[in-house]
Amino acid sequence: APRLRNAHGDEGIEGTVILVQPPELESINIATSWAENRRAFYLNRKVNCMPASGGFSIGKRRYDFDPARDSGGLDWGRGRWTYENRWYWSSGSGYVDGVPFGWNVGYGFSDRTPASENALFYAGKAHKLTEVAFRIDESDYTKPWSFSSSDGRFEMEFRPLVDRQAATTIGPLKSIQHQVFGGFTGTALLDDGKKIELVDFLAFAEDVFNRW
Q1: pTM check: above 0.90
Q2: 2 touches 11 (CB < 8 A)
Q3: For residue 81, what is the DSSP state?
Q4: The CATH number of the domain covering residues in 29-49+69-211
Q5: Cα 125 to Cα 120: distance, rounded to the nearest angstrom
Q6: Where along the chain do its domains lie?
């Protein structure tokens, strides 16, 4: 991206980022359909806490990843989707006291009655969650959000730092996106009752509407 320019005036981006999924790293895999059209379906895989290496340069500034400190995630999906849809999604990957920790929560994109994508990830193991509600002030996506699961195991306050927003309309096609990055503060409970406490854990959440 030679024409990209950041806030410091640095121009151009180049690099390679490598994410690795060890055999023991668990993930979320679901296949769901839409209530209004059972012939439409979504096959999805979410992999969190993948150790990251490599790096990239923006202008003359270099940023390197250390797998002992940095991690990322993979979102893979295929299917036959509906013309109009809206989803809410949040994902985070990182380390808590040196142990890999992350989450994937979301809803709206297909009927999640038979299966959900909501889970915590700790030390490579998945811990399933029940329904998670996103509370958003849609008049200003940079105002604080909150997240709460029906079982009380994922309770977070989200302080946005950046709203990567986009709005596109081309004939019958439309996309309104708010992908927001910031810090999560709150608690998460694992299957064994262990409490994970977070303070400004960097991750993202999004609200996306599409007609396509």
Answers
A1: yes
A2: yes
A3: -
A4: 2.40.370
A5: 8
A6: 29-49+69-211
